[in-house]
Specification:
alpha/beta, Cobalt-precorrin-4 Transmethylase, domain 1, five-stranded mixed β-sheet, 17 strands, 35% helix, globular, binds (3E)-4-hydroxybut-3-en-1-yl trihydrogen diphosphate, binds iron/sulfur cluster, iron-sulfur
Length: 416
């Protein structure tokens, strides 16, 4: 098949259809699809019929049936109409992709599944707020910034009528706007008030707690050291609580160089999604410099961030490779990748199964799998399903904590 623009499409098999037996499902289709898409080949999905012995046709069929440890699993790509425009290029790419995946398929693997992983209570609440606002008020419901830093979550809500905007000036007067889980500065709240917007606040209560601390520490006359990453929305929101009294510190080196008006009056706060060990290092430097340093009663790094890091630490060393489901602007997800790498295990951030590269699995018999707090659990299931399509797979979950946290919804959306 030639798609508009002249390139020949590759048909990735969801199922292989032999002429003399039952159809063979292809759970790894997303993996082949992702590789072909990255290679710039247009992809279609559907059944691929296996040519019988001696068959000759216009298309090229690349296929293998693997022993899946009980059930068989297929891998297949068909370059339809191999004589069409761009067909040679598509066939070359299809052969390269097929053989790369074929090479890492057919060996038994285990997945070490970290628990807890995936959605936290603040993310579940934020998504439910947008869903309920859409149910109650209809589309459009405006959302300032990404409700959570996940491509799939944002795409799903957009499909259901949410309109994501970067700033409030893109929201028409009087309309409903949801503030994201990461929080906003007082200046943003004031602007929403001035513009008569109907605000529903999806800021995670654990982020709000940090804002409250920022105001409290600043009002007692302290310099507030905010440990976090510059430019992150949560950090911008927290900085905005007491901008003239707050300084951002991102590294131990910055902490070591920090000059403050009164070294006896210094407090610290942190972004909620930092690496626990790296943050402790910065706090240690600050405490050595400012022995009277005061901080939050308990750490500002939230329970979900801490639990996901602990869970991954428990499996990282035993894994040959780690996959972290999450988007690349998700701070807590990126911290998980870095944590695995600090444990000596190569780690990769993926939005879903289509991002997995065959070379990551070469020689990897144990694959550690986790997901950041904004990544839907269904994407983790999709990764496991795709890996199952490469051969026999055992999945073992290691649970290091059980999460029972639940946050109530804000008043405007509490009743359905
Ligand atoms: O980039 P973050 O990790 O702060 O946010 P993400 O990925 O949306 O995770 C959930 C929201 C966290 C807020 O603290
Ligand atoms: Fe709240 Fe923590 Fe989830 Fe952020 S990661 S939304 S602070 S529970």
């Amino acid at each position: 098949m030639t798609v508009p623009g002249g390139a020949t499409a590759a048909l990735v098999a969801d199922v292989l259809v032999p002429d003399d037996g039952p159809p063979v499902p292809c759970p790894a289709a997303d993996l082949l699809d992702g590789s072909l898409t990255r290679a710039g080949v247009p992809v279609r999905r559907g059944p691929v019929t296996l040519p019988g012995p001696g068959a000759a046709g216009a298309g090229a069929v690349l296929a293998a049936v693997l022993d899946g440890g009980g059930a068989s699993a297929g891998l297949g790509i068909e370059v339809e109409d191999a004589s069409g425009g761009g067909a040679a290029r598509t066939e070359e790419a299809a052969r390269a992709v097929f053989s790369a995946w074929r090479e890492v398929a057919g060996v038994p693997r285990q997945v070490l599944l970290a628990a807890p992983r995936s959605f936290c209570a603040g993310v579940e609440r934020a998504i439910e707020i947008v869903e309920r606002a859409l149910e109650q008020r209809g589309s459009p419901v405006y959302v300032r910034k990404q409700i959570v830093h996940n491509t799939r979550v944002v795409a799903d809500l957009r499909e259901r009528g949410a309109v994501f905007v970067d700033e409030l000036d893109a929201v028409p007067e009087g309309e409903t706007v949801v503030f994201s889980a990461h929080g906003v500065s007082p200046a943003v709240r004031e602007e929403a008030g001035r513009r008569g917007l109907d605000v529903i606040d999806a800021t995670c209560p654990l982020v709000t707690k940090v804002h409250n601390e920022a105001r409290r520490f600043a009002s007692r006359g302290d310099t507030v050291v905010l440990i976090g990453h510059g430019g992150h929305e949560e950090v911008e929101g927290t900085l905005g609580e007491a901008p003239s009294r707050t300084v951002l510190v991102q590294t131990p080196e910055e902490a070591a160089r920090l000059e403050v008006p009164d070294p006896g009056r210094v407090s610290y706060l942190t972004q909620t999604t930092l690496a626990v060990d790296e943050t402790a290092e910065i706090v240690d430097v600050l405490r050595a410099r400012f022995p009277e340093l005061r901080g939050p009663a308990s750490d500002d790094i939230c329970y979900a961030t801490t639990n996901r890091q602990d869970a991954l630490a428990a499996i990282a060393a035993e894994s040959d490779a780690v996959l972290v489901v999450g988007s690349d602007n998700s701070s807590n997800s990126v911290r998980l990748v870095e944590l695995a790498e600090r444990n000596g295990t190569p780690a990769h951030l993926i939005d879903g199964p289509g991002d997995i590269r065959p070379e990551w699995l070469a020689g990897a018999r144990s694959v550690g799998l986790t997901a950041g707090a904004s990544a839907p659990p269904a994407l983790v299931d999709a990764v496991v399903a795709a890996l199952r399509g490469l051969g026999p797979l055992t999945v073992t979950e290691y649970e290091t904590a059980r999460e029972t946290v639940h946050f109530t919804l804000p008043t405007p959306v509490r009743r359905r």
